Amino acid sequence: MTSLPTSFQVGSASSGQSVRDAIASYRRAQYLVAGSTVASVSDDSDPLDDEEAGFGAIEEEEDIIEAERSPPESSDGFIGQFDWDEDALDTPTTPKAALPFSRKISPSPGPRERNETERTPLLRKTISFTKTPVPRRASANNNEYLAVPHAGPSLRRRSSAASARSMKYNYGGHSTFGQTLFNSIAILLGIGMLSEPLAFAYAGWGMGFFLIAFYGYISCYTAKILAGIILSDVRLRSYADIGRKAFGPRSTLVISILFCLELFAVSVILVTLYADSLNSLLPQYSSNTYKLWGLIVLIPTVFLPLSLLSYTSILGIISTVFVVVVILVDGVSKTESPGSLWSPADTSLGIDNWNHLGIAFGLFMAGFSGHAVIPSLARDMTDPTQFSKMIDWAFVVATFIYGLIGCAGYIMFGNSVSQEISMDLLVTPGYNAVLNQAALWMLVISPLSKFALTTQPLNTAIQILIGIDSPIAAPEELEAKLAEPHRGSRVSFKGTLSVIQRIAVALLSVAVSILVPEFSAAMAFLGSFSAFVLCVIGPVAAKIALERRCGLFDGVLMAVAVVMAAWGTAAAFREA
């Protein structure tokens, strides 16, 4: 039997450190998710107008490090390593324990004096919109720059003091390939999974398979577009920065509204899921009654710091995996319809209702929303050249799981499947009651715990927009900004207004959930409007604007996305 590598043995200090590193990476991803929204409303100015910060593909050649390339002394070096300013090159770092999925990183040379003002890599790589190229040496006829390994004293630089001052952040990533892959999958998989069987019921087998594969592909394609743009310019830090570069500073307000609308829709869906799940467990009271009672928990949690709330997102991952397992176990364990994988329920091959098809557009697309944080995840990778490979795997896994649950649920319950497949688990005889009750309780606790995490960036963005909070310039700054507990209790006008605003968002989320109780309608709106605009239309439009040309594929994709978004949004409103 093959033994585990000595660098990662179960129960060893190395394995414990690896788990802690993975958890820390996931919590950092939650800060990036929140920070991507907050940063979008923080600056109306155009950061790309500063001539001293000009990093055009041609102009930056004058500031690139001239280095002698020397082969690594050992075979476990890695490509794509950044070169840093000379004074910051040899900053000592604490080596991390090796992860089973991580690359081995050669240690930095010995410590030297460091200039605190120079912390930014001078080298960057211009990266394709669909493929991350292997780094190579800069040339007069190429604007792709080589990330040169450390070359010791032979390094020489010609970077100007002005460009060094213009670069504020350390762009070195912290997450390995495996950590970023886990974070990406965790962000993609969520409550949208529960409505996948209904999406198949509305679209039929033929169109259902086509839509889930098509949306998975185009979402992966546009994620690479965003990563290509963000990694081609060291000044860009967030989705909003890409919008400002492509469309100008006036796009900031539009992006901010879209982000806030998406977060608010998710908060409404969380309230609906919590109440519907609790109603299935305890039908003595209506879902609306449970929504009102939920305010007892929801309102206090909105004042908790993000440093604490980021841990609650781990519960969401556990509940997602647990629900997947329970659905499959239920389907296999029962031999008779309904609710059996061995005896399929009545299903449809084609489309029965064109309005339902529009809702299916949104239900399928809602599962692939998450592009707001894609640029930050790309920046957070220790080796961004591996982003394309990583995001391919992330969308393959997410598409497979969504397809698996959608097909299994549709086979088990057919055209009579509920808006949330979890609601069918308790009312169907022949299942393990204890197992299904545990799954439903997870769907009660998880939305309650994730509500505050979802509304935290929404609240901060609103407070920045109305002028009662200070802005941030990049998603990474949110950790320091929100690490401390909320001090709204301090007697001041802004403090009081902040408390009122947070409570108002919680009340409004519950009110909208009561007015629009259909889980499928809320999910369809989230997918048809927010997901299509932010995940497909926005990235493709940015690519066209920056390249100043529109390819055939991009033009067709843009037209199809606009039609599907309009169709799905109208169908969602009719359903509501």
Name the average pLDDT: 75
Order of helices and strands: HHHHHHHHHHHHHHHHH
The amount of beta strand, in percent, is under 5%
Query: What is the overall silhouette?
Result: globular
Give the proportion of residues in helices: 55-70%
Unreliable stretches, pLDDT < 50, 5 or more residues? 1-15, 50-171
Structural class: mainly alpha
Question: How many strands, what sense, and barrel or not for the largest sheet?
Answer: none
N- to C-terminal distance = 57 Å
Whole-angstrom Rg: 25 Å
The number of strands is 0
Helix segment count?
A: 17
Region (Disordered): 36-75, 92-120
Main location: membrane
Biased composition (Basic and acidic residues): 111-120
Membrane topology: Multi-pass membrane protein
Molecular structure report:
This protein has 576 residues and is an all-alpha fold. The chain contains 17 helices and no strands. Helix 4 (196-231) packs parallel to helix 16 (519-547), helix 6 packs antiparallel against helix 16 and helix 16 (519-547) packs antiparallel against helix 17 (552-575). The chain is globular and about 60 Å long. The relative contact order is 0.16. The model is unreliable at 1-15 and 50-171 (pLDDT under 50).
